[in-house]
Structure formats: C-alpha cells, structure tokens
Specification:
Number of strands: 2
Protein name: Voltage-dependent calcium channel type a subunit alpha-1-like
Strand content: 5-15%
Distance between the termini: 53 Å
Radius of gyration: 20 Å
GO molecular function: high voltage-gated calcium channel activity
Strand order of the largest sheet: 1-2
Oligomer: single chain
Organism: Plakobranchus ocellatus
Membrane topology: Multi-pass membrane protein
Shape: elongated
Largest sheet: 2 strands, antiparallel
Subcellular location: Membrane
C-alpha cells in the first residue's frame, strides 16, 4: 500500500501510493501521472499536461462524460427521419455540435495526459479509447463534409 521514494538528498520517505486502496478499502487519491512524455512535447512536469491530468482525474469527469453520452443517444433517438428539415431536427443538430465538442475536448485532454500510443498506459492502448476516438473522428469528418 505504500511506495518508497528517494528524495534529492538520497533519503527515502514512505508515502501512500496515489490511486491505490488503503487498508480500510478507501482510495487514497488520484491516479499518478505517467512518467513518460506525452507526444514528445509534454513532460510530466509540464503545466499544460498537469492541468489535463487534473481535469481527467476529477471525481465527476467520467460521470459527466457518461451523462453527455446518454444525452447524445437520446438526442439521436429523438431525431425525425421522415421530416428531415423539421424544427426539432434543426435544434437537435445544434446539440450534436455541442456533444461532439465535448467529446473532442475529452479526447484532447486524455491524449495530452496519457500520450497517444508509444508507452504503456497511453490513449490508444485502451480499447474504449479507440472506440471514443473513432466516434469523435467520424463525427468531425462528417461535420467537415456538411
């Protein structure tokens, strides 16, 4: 449950590992940042990467994304396929832009935090992230060709 780290003076101090469970079953904190550079630009101490890591590991980040996915699915189900130029479809089309924007921001935050592919734990090494990236890229391409 504890990770020993060596300070610059050569002494070792024992601290609880972040993201691990303690003896009582509770979590001790957010996941640690990966020690690798992200896209050869953002090192572990880069303020932009640290901000992205902070946002991605917020307590309500994943539930917020799940709510947006649910709302996006409901909006997709509410579209009228018979009358394509209806007022409700035009409004839902604006919501589609908002949903795609939120998902694009999520993708960018996670890529800056985790890196793309080259090291263990990077964005593309998780199958759910591959699915997310595929959906976001297809939506952005569809918007580009409208």
């Amino acid at each position: 449950m504890f990770a020993a780290s060596t300070t610059s003076s050569g002494t070792s101090d024992v601290q609880p590992r972040s993201g691990s469970q303690n003896e009582s079953g509770g979590f001790t904190g957010p996941k640690p940042m990966l020690p690798y550079s992200s896209m050869f630009i953002f090192g572990p101490t880069n303020p932009v990467r640290r901000f992205c890591h902070f946002v991605v590991n917020l307590r309500y980040f994943d539930p917020f994304i799940m709510i947006v996915i649910l709302a996006s699915s409901l909006a997709l189900a509410a579209e009228d396929p018979v009358v394509e130029n209806s007022d409700s479809n035009r409004i839902l089309n604006y919501f589609d832009y908002v949903f795609t924007g939120v998902f694009t921001i999520e993708l960018v935050l996670k890529v800056v935090d985790l890196g793309i592919i080259l090291h263990p734990g990077s964005y593309i090494r998780d199958l759910w992230n591959i699915l997310d990236a595929t959906v976001v890229i297809c939506a952005l391409v569809a918007f580009a060709f409208q």
